Amino acid sequence: MIYILENEKLKIKVSSMGAELQSIYRAETDTEYLWQGDPDFWSGRACNIFPVCGRMIEGKYTYAGGTYDMPIHGFARNMEWEVIHQKSNALTLQLQSNAETLAMFPWNFSLEMVYTLEEDTLSVATILHNLDEKTMLFAIGGHPGFNVPLTDGEKFDDYYVEFDEVCEPRLLVLSDTCYYTGNTAPYPLEEGKRIPLHHRLFDNDALFFCNTAKGIALKSKTGERSVHMAFPDMKYIGLWHTRGADAPFVCIEPWTSVPGWDRPGIAAFEDKPEMSTLEPQTIYRNTYSLTFG
Q1: What is the C-alpha to C-alpha distance for residues 22 and 15, in angstroms, rounded to an integer?
Q2: Per residue in 26-35, pLDDT tens?
Q3: Structural domains for the chain
Q4: pLDDT score of 27
């Protein structure tokens, strides 16, 4: 089912499947900001990532003597969520642990996604309740894709991303199969802030960074439409579009964690890099926001 939030600036659509954004539309300029899921490039739009970011070797892990399957970016994006609260400017969807999730992730939990619309800003909050009696290991992230270009007559190469402040990011070194090697490398920016976009940037798949400013914007050299993301509680930020393709979108992905290690064999969940922990009967909250120019 599709749910709608709307104000004088923006109209937002959210699906109950995966609690995933389906549209971010500005009527004033007749602009659809969100990638619309063309399967020729990528059928997703803005999947929500839980309880792992990225891939795990063989799509499995071990924990407390058991072996579990875990799809890329976790299972939350492929499950039906329930709307538990809606008002004119806010929508809360909930996913609760069940037999299907427990077969993949041996913790009882309640997970909420809260979308709140204020003027031209959309905030996306993740609220996780550990309902179990043991400490939870988890990761969360966002995966929203944005149309590039945003204005007719522009080209993909007219766009760039720019951090809010001068910074010295470190690029996570990934293997050819997109697992984390444990290494980072310097990644010089234009004027200390900017990465020009071009399709060949993604020939080796995603770029993931740490040690950045906590805000990033998608901008055009020729137009005025833009997307700004603030991610104060996320350690990593990624850029991606379909590998080896001239895909007309770019994803800006805030993550708390990284893909699994580039090592042979099924890994223990405790050994997956940069996992967060949540004590029994406690709550975790993380919010990022999107502002549309």
Answers
A1: 6
A2: 989 999 999 9
A3: 2-292 (2.70.98.10)
A4: 87
pLDDT of 81 > 90? The answer is yes
Burial class (CB in 10 A: 0-12, 13-18, 19+), 163: buried
Q: How far apart are CA 140 and CA 291, in angstroms?
A: 21
At 77 the three-state DSSP class reads: helix
State how far the Cα of 117 lies from the Cα of 124, in Å rounded to an integer. Answer: 9
Paired tokens of 249: 């979108």
| 92 closest CA partner among 47, 120, 121, 123 | 123
Q: How many CB atoms lie within 10 A of CB 240?
A: 20
- Burial, 18: exposed, middle or buried (Cβ in 10 Å; 0-12, 13-18, 19+)? buried
Q: What integer is the mean pLDDT of 167-189?
A: 94
Strands 180-186 and 215-220: unpaired
Pick the closest to residue 108 from 278, 271, 270, 285 (CA basis).
Answer: 278
In this predicted structure, the answer to whether residue 234 has a pLDDT above a threshold of 90 is yes
Q: Report CA 33 to chain centroid distance, whole Å.
A: 16
- Helix locations, the chain, DSSP H: 99-102
pLDDT in tens, 95-143: 999 999 999 999 999 999 999 999 999 999 999 999 999 999 999 999 9
